Amino acid sequence: MYVILVYDINEKRVGKMLKLCRQYLTWIQNSVFEGEITEVKLNELITRAKKFLDFETDSIIVFKSRQQKWLEKSIYGSEKGETDVFL
Q1: What is this structure's pTM?
Q2: Which of 1, 41, 45, 69 is the most exposed place for a label (fewest CB within 10 A)?
């Protein structure tokens, strides 16, 4: 599946979240990641993030799509992270 993950986390924990998300998805904007991921890997990411989240002040939002082709994306200005991955 293709996901866009956005988070709003206290600056004390934002570094941990950034590092965690980079292990699973592609960074595209401050606090925004996207990419192909399995349901199992997404659940793993969320489970790991919940260990340091403060549920009173922090939030994570995940938008899911079956495939990237079902999502139209327009970029205005500087693109922070390239979404192409070469293996």
Answers
A1: 0.79
A2: 69
Cα distances (angstroms) measured from residue 74 to each of 13, 15, 44, 71: 30, 27, 29, 10
Across 8-28, average pLDDT: 94
Residue 36 · residue 2 · CB < 8 Å: yes
Per DSSP, the three-state class of 37 is coil
CATH code, domain with 62:
3.30.70.240
| 47-65 residue pLDDT tens | 999 999 998 999 999 999 8
Query: What are the φ and ψ backbone dihedral angles of 46, each rounded to 5 degrees?
Result: -65, -40
